[in-house]
């Protein structure tokens, strides 16, 4: 959907065009964020549930087989401790990664805020410079 062009009497600037069109694109991208998160969440949940079902199905299929082997309980207890250790390690790594991501996002947000402030300041200075240039230019133009 193309935005209508101003009539012939009104003046537009390059910056107006860029700002308007880039804002339209950014707003469209922002409007897609909730849907993208929801779709990703649904897919990730389905993936995790499928993995859980795979291990559950294997358990049912192999339970009878392993029970007939009559494995020593001490060996199974040692295996359980080892498996619990690995699971606990995995759970801690998930927590660490989650904290890392949170810190990483906070750092990026801080950098964006700093950049935004710097850019606004630079544009203000640039605007003042252009204004001064225009005044000098107007002085020569009137002579």
Summarize the structure.
With 143 residues, this protein is mainly α. Helices cover 88% and strands 0% of the residues. The two termini are 48 Å apart.
What can you tell me about this protein's structure?
The protein has 143 residues and is mainly α. The chain folds into two domains: 13-70; 71-143. The protein contains two helices and no strands. The protein has helices at 14-69, 73-142. It starts with 13 loop residues before the first helix and ends with a helix.
- Approximate strand percentage: under 5%
Given the helix and strand composition, which structural class is it? mainly alpha
**How much helicity do the residues have?**
over 70%
Number of strands: 0
| Uncertain residue segments | none
N-to-C SSE string, H for helix and E for strand: HH
How would a crystallographer describe the biggest sheet? none
Number of domains: 2
Shape: elongated
Gyration radius (Cα, Å) is: 31 Å
Average pLDDT metric = 88
Give the end-to-end Cα distance, rounded to a whole number of Å.
48 Å
How many DSSP helices?
2
Task: Give the topology.
Blueprint lengths: L13 H56 L3 H70 L1
Give short descriptive properties of this protein.
single chain; elongated; mainly alpha; 88% helix; 143 residues; 2 domains; 2 helices
């Amino acid at each position: 959907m193309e935005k209508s062009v101003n009539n012939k009497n009104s003046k537009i600037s390059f910056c107006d065009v860029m700002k308007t069109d880039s804002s339209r694109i950014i707003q469209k991208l922002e409007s897609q964020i909730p849907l993208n998160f929801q779709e990703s969440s649904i897919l990730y949940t389905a993936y995790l549930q499928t993995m859980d079902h795979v291990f559950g199905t294997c358990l049912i299929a192999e339970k009878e087989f392993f029970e007939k082997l009559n494995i020593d309980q001490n060996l199974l207890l040692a295996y359980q401790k080892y498996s619990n250790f690995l699971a606990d390690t995995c759970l801690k790594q998930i927590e660490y990664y989650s904290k890392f991501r949170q810190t990483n996002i906070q750092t990026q947000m801080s950098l964006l805020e700093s950049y935004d402030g710097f850019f606004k300041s630079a544009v203000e200075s640039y605007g003042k410079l252009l204004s001064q240039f225009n005044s000098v230019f107007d002085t020569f133009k009137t002579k």
